[in-house]
Amino acid sequence: MKMYFISGLGADRRVFSLLDLSFCEPVFLDWVTPDPSDTLATYAAKMRALIPEEAPVIVGLSLGGMLATEIAKADPRVKSILISSNKTSNEFPSYLKMFRYFPLYKWIPGVVMKNMQSLYTYSFGVKDPEQKKILYAIIKDADIPFVRWALGAIMNWESSVAPSNIVQIHGTGDRLFRAKYIKADYIIDGGSHTMTMDKHAEISVLLKQLTTDRKV
């Protein structure tokens, strides 16, 4: 069966490259160019239009999880699995909400955003040297205009109700979206924000279980 993957902010399919997806036919959705007025909900509708199946399974990481949530809200036939993400805007910690009022991301030069490696290493919790190489390569290739739009859309996301057709997987070591603010269905001990890499074996097993059972 096909399984659709939406990556995180500024990322691409490489963030899923360490997963064992031999149990399914993975389809990695590429970003489409957003309109300046797009919200997460309207952009999610554009991503849903890329999927021909009537009742697909969608896996979203971080930003991708928020989009997968919006897709699930709009279409109850969809089964969405969120990894290192929020199912509602209420799960954002207060220190991230401040960027709604102080949007520094609008003014930081793109070259600076791409070179804050120490910040990304800490926030994403990546320690393995090979995994760092993957992460830094992804950041180097990031589309800065898309990143700026996405950050604005995330900061202005208003969603207080989680649909029933989602499953949330979260790590206790997530430094970006702290686990204490989130009531996830599955907890990965020590999992970072990029636990598709540092906990790839556990995530692979869990995805296979959820997909095989279809109880998501």
Automatic annotation (TrEMBL):
GO-annotated molecular function: hydrolase activity
Phylogenetic classification of the source organism: Bacteria, Pseudomonadati, Bacteroidota, Chitinophagia, Chitinophagales
Entry annotated with the keyword Ion transport: no
Protein source organism: Terrimonas ginsenosidimutans
Protein name: Alpha/beta hydrolase
Keyword set, alphabetical order: Hydrolase
Coiled-coil region(s): none
Gene3D superfamilies associated with the record: alpha/beta hydrolase (3.40.50.1820)
Domain AB hydrolase-1: 5-193
Keyword Hydrolase recorded: yes
InterPro entries: AB_hydrolase_1 (IPR000073), AB_hydrolase_fold (IPR029058)
